[in-house]
Amino acid sequence: MKRRTSPADRANRPNRSYTLIAGCVLAGLIALLALVSLVWLPYAADDTSGGRLTGPAADHLLGTDKLGRDLFTQAMTGSRIAVEAGLGSVLVAAAIGVTLGVLSAFAQGWLDDTLSAFLDILIAFPTLLLAMLIVAARSATLGSAVLAIGLAQSAVVARLVRILVKRVLAQDYITAARTSGTSWPRIVAGHVLPNIWPTLVVNLALQFGLAVLAEAGLSYLGLGAPPPNASWGRMLQEAQATFTTAPAGALAPGILLVLLVIGVNLVADGLRDTLDPATRRRRA
Amino acid sequence: MTLLDIRGLTVRTADGRTLVDDLSLTLGPGERLGVIGESGSGKSLTTLAVLGLLPEGMTATGSVELAGTQIVGATEKRLTTVRGRDAAIVFQEPLTALDPLMRVGRQLAEPLRGKRRLTGGALKRAVAEALEQVRLPEPDRIARAFPHEISGGQRQRVALAMALACEPKLLIADEPTTALDVSVQAEMLALIDTLVREREMAVLFVSHDLAVVAKVTDRALVMKDGRAVEEGTVERLVRAPREEYTKALVTSARRLESALDLRSAP
């Protein structure tokens, strides 16, 4: 492929990839912890042999909690749950949001109004309340939390997709495709989705970070994954009472949470710069 | 037999404003008609109505018969068979006429696959042929390029190739040269002229520029505020305009031309 690189382009490129690389490293570290936790953990989740609130030591890197469980083990399990919550919520949000968004972009008259009103209500509806309703209807599991967060986020995604699709549909090349006898499903798959993808994927990356935070909030309130699965939110909640004597219990999940969210946001930022059609136009 | 027969076409917005008012025109096979008017005169909407492509919320009443098919009120399915086969459009803006994320060759293949049912090697050859027909150099390279990698004039040629791909009986050109610079504009007009002549296609050529219309068509319709003001040969319109508005158009075109002449005089 031919490259036409302007000096300004060359100057900008390293910055861009640094953002993306930094984000990937941060988020990747947490993802690595999560992956390792699937096959190996320093201690079993219910192993209380460590003595209570020992503080960081060689055999317990982050110390133990008030029941004598290893905090590093909990932090690892927590990162797995955080990544699962983020991925799951974004998948739910993308599946529902893109479908509803494309539909409402095509809808006219009362259907358009109804869908818009529905999305507005869903956006205004507190995620917490939605989560409590779903937990009440099902049970307090990670799945319930993911469903609640994904549903709440799908409204935001749908509204974004609706606007993006409308903007693409107004372009002459869509009219040209219709003139060529291309069917609507083909136009959506071939022209619309590829053109909204760059903006959409950046938004989904941001939603991932928000979902991780929301899951931590829900499990802090006891609406997330049930024990003995340690989620960062619940670790924070459990360490709250002993924060002054054993700060590691609250600091570890807190710092990991911040790292993951910053990492994902950096990835979103880096993606925006590399995927944006305007900059891509110059790069390609 | 007429190819395009528009009778009493009226286009209204959802809130009841009339944008095209009781417009009638006819076009025989192989005939060329220019539609002249300032922006907002309803000329572009008229062309969109011919293919049933009016923007959301606008409604057409009256009658638009294209090659024997009634367009007003036709189902989308019916329209899909008519579009491309009976008439195709070239738009004004070469930047938005092509999908920025799709290679030129794939876009050009769309009408060929959709309408002429070509696949595989035959499709590839047809794409290269279509690009050669619009006098694009290195058709292979252009087929692999993204729209932003070729010039505005080249993009407009690709758009023309897409419109011609299904060999429509009527080519609708909506200000196809307005966004191009003057030298490219002349080439493009000459190209349209030859291609249409070779294929004995009818042309509906929309422009705000009398001089441009005069280069392609010999008959023209003047539109103002959604109404047809005057119709006749371009020569007659220039020499003996009957309506005030046509007179004003001609005078302003003359004034521009003489101003340019004065400048280029030594």
Automatic annotation (TrEMBL), chain A:
One of its GO terms (cellular component) is plasma membrane. Keywords: Cell membrane, Membrane, Transmembrane, Transmembrane helix, Transport. The chain crosses the membrane at residues 20-43, 85-106, 118-136, 142-161, 200-223, 243-268. It is a multi-pass membrane protein. Its main location: membrane. Belongs to the binding-protein-dependent transport system permease family. This is Binding-protein-dependent transport system inner membrane protein. The lineage of its organism: Bacteria, Bacillati, Actinomycetota, Actinomycetes, Kitasatosporales.
From TrEMBL, chain B:
GO terms for molecular function: ATP binding; ATP hydrolysis activity. SMART domains: AAA. InterPro entries: AAA+_ATPase, ABC_Ni/Peptide_Import, ABC_transporter-like_ATP-bd, ABC_transporter-like_CS, P-loop_NTPase. The keyword Zinc-finger does not apply. It is a peripheral membrane protein. GO terms for cellular component: plasma membrane. Keywords: ATP-binding, Cell membrane, Membrane, Nucleotide-binding, Transport. PANTHER family: DIPEPTIDE TRANSPORT ATP-BINDING PROTEIN DPPD, OLIGOPEPTIDE TRANSPORT ATP-BINDING PROTEIN APPD. Belongs to the ABC transporter superfamily. This is ABC transporter ATP-binding protein. It comes from Streptomyces sparsogenes DSM 40356.
